[in-house]
Specification:
This protein is mostly helical and 166 residues long. It has seven helices and no strands.
Length: 166
């Protein structure tokens, strides 16, 4: 079975301010869709893939790496995906990314504190009870990679960072 199925012929338009959920079965391409959207996935034009035998011919990750290296040696512009984003977006990965600093600093992420927006974010992301049980509330220092937080707390803090970023 081939693990490298292409995302092709997608035409997605999302209205500004919309809340969108991408759902589907395990392995259907949800994470790949977002990787492409944020520019973390290399875009390969069909012509390039066909020149090297097509996706069907790639049996392993090593085969894909060989193809990628050959394409890079041809000096193609592979990091210019045909994805257009007007404005900004926030992305919360499956594995929460947490800094070794306070909960507040993790949420603000170098943005100035707007107290009302911050409170609304805490409420929207269901962090009130978490902050209530932590020794210093939102000024609690988070250990390396969030070691002193549960998985759910890390996820809510990552979500709060995206929400606060607007």
């Amino acid at each position: 079975m081939n693990d490298f199925l292409p995302l092709k012929q997608l035409d997605v338009s999302i209205e500004k301010g919309s809340f969108v959920c991408i759902i589907g079965d395990v392995g259907c391409g949800k994470s790949s869709f977002f990787s492409a959207l944020i520019g973390d996935m290399i875009y390969l034009p069909d012509e390039c893939i066909q020149e090297f035998g097509g996706v069907e011919k790639m049996a392993s990750k090593e085969d894909f790496e060989k193809l990628k290296n050959k394409l890079l040696s041809k000096d193609l512009k592979l990091n210019e995906p045909p994805v257009k984003v007007n404005g900004s977006m926030s992305y919360v990965e499956q594995n929460a990314w947490i800094q070794n600093c306070t909960i507040r600093d993790n949420i603000l992420f170098n943005k100035p504190l707007d107290r009302q927006r911050y409170i609304n974010t805490i409420i929207a992301c269901q962090l009130e009870s978490d902050l209530g049980i932590l020794p210093a509330g939102d000024m609690t220092e988070i250990g390396e990679k969030g070691i002193n937080l549960s998985g759910g707390q890390k996820a809510r803090i990552s979500l709060a960072r995206a929400v606060y970023a607007d």
